[in-house]
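Section 5.1 Outputs to date
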Amino acid sequence: MAETRKKRGAALDLPTVMQACPEFASWARNMGGYLKDWGDLHRVVGQLRPMIGVSEHAWNLAQDRLGPQIATAALVLTFDKHCAGEVASPGGYLRGMVEKAGAGELHLERSFYGRLSGQAA
């Protein structure tokens, strides 16, 4: 049962991620043009990561513990929240998400859907 829950992050699709995080989406388009899949998103996240001060170590740890797709989504969320002034320490925030995932308490899709429902319609 816990395995199924862990995999739920994969329920996130690219359009949802980009729509929920407009600040990141804007930067990503400027850097990488059209993002057609998670591979493109992963590449751009890797390029934008140093701009918000997330260390390579923190990023590698996140990818190792969460898998590339969930780590990518987590970093997109971190980037957007940092740009919005919601997160002062992006590296610490990302590490916190890795710890939550280790405890089975990371619900990324809730964060993304919460951001979507919070945006003015």
